[in-house]
Inverse folding.
């Protein structure tokens, strides 16, 4: 299911191949977020052309709208959204706690009110697995509890124990298909707040349950970047080398580069597309806000060193005009540019420099 192909001699970076029911993907990989079965402002073939082979959709949002039955009757999520590559579905644990109203947590599951219409919803680990099975994603995530930052130590430990129990129930109720070419993979999630020892404990518990891959959850939620990197590095030491490692919610260029060097294989984040919809572009170490008046007469491209469609054809002045006028084309072009920047970084990381150790 997962094979490491190269290791970097100077860092802990590695490349690999992840095999899913809808094809192989190379790692490190970044999944553009298709929360509602679409990468915002992009057609599926455009996402492919930029170099992305896998996307992330969200079980919570799709469960509430349009409903799992609609997706299932459409032939599954791949056919519904017109994407023929692998899809990972997030369980929706984060959305339950960030968007749901009147959330109540018990050992049985999470009760909350929909952020759409206020209707009462209950999500158990078993229901979470059933929803993702019906969606037909290639990789499903266990249901976990997400904590705000900061959280007290005793709260973080109680939460990680709950997440462990939910993970076991998810594993026990996941669809049983032993055919590796068809089986939906299941990833466990590491929690533990901002406490390295609790994250180590969570990692060892989760690995003990046995999953196809392991995700680091509850990070990049407002804590200092130095702490994020410290916790990622220390937690990875407790995960098996032969399994894919997935860091949830990191999508800035420097964060990606740093965490690839630590040995992370998979990433997702809505940041590149969200920043674009807010009128900003990734340019090197900067984030240009095109609403700024200084770009009104700037005839240069967003980034002279970028080869994306937006940079090759349009000026900063024109892009600023589109943003100020709230024209859809402007948000589309900025999305193309930001995703291209991420794709370029990921592509370069998939070709480690000469001198790396070859595993096979």
């Amino acid at each position: 299911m997962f094979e490491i192909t190269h290791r970097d001699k100077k860092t802990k970076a590695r490349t690999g191949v992840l095999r899913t029911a809808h094809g192989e993907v190379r790692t490190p990989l970044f999944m553009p977020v298709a929360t509602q079965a679409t990468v915002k402002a992009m057609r599926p073939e455009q996402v492919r052309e930029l170099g992305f082979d896998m996307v992330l959709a969200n079980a919570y949002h799709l469960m509430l709208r349009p409903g799992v039955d609609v997706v299932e009757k459409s032939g599954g999520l791949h056919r519904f959204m017109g994407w023929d590559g692998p899809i990972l579905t997030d369980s929706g644990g984060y959305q339950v706690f960030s968007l749901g109203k009147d959330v109540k947590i018990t050992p049985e599951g999470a009760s909350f009110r929909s952020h759409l219409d206020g209707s009462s919803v209950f999500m158990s680990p078993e229901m979470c697995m059933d929803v993702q099975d019906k969606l037909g994603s290639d990789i499903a995530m266990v249901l976990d509890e997400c904590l705000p930052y900061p959280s007290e130590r005793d709260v973080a430990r109680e939460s990680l124990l709950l997440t462990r129990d939910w993970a076991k129930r998810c594993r026990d109720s996941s669809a049983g298909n032993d055919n590796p070419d068809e089986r939906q993979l299941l990833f466990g999630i590491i929690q533990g707040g901002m406490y390295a020892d609790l994250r180590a404990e969570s990692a060892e518990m989760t690995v003990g349950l046995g999953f196809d891959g392991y995700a680091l959850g509850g990070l990049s939620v407002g804590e200092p970047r130095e702490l994020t990197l410290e916790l990622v590095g220390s937690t990875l030491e407790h995960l098996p080398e032969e399994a894919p490692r997935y860091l949830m919610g990191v999508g800035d260029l420097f964060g990606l580069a740093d965490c690839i060097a630590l040995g992370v294989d998979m990433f997702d984040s809505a940041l590149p597309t969200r920043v674009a919809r807010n009128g900003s572009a990734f340019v090197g170490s900067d984030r240009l806000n095109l609403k700024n008046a200084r770009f009104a007469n700037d005839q240069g491209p967003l980034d002279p060193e970028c080869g994306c469609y937006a940079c090759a054809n349009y000026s900063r002045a024109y892009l600023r005009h589109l943003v100020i006028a709230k024209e859809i084309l402007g948000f589309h072009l900025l999305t193309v540019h930001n995703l291209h920047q991420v794709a370029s970084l990921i592509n370069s990381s998939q070709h480690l420099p000469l001198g790396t150790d070859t595993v096979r």
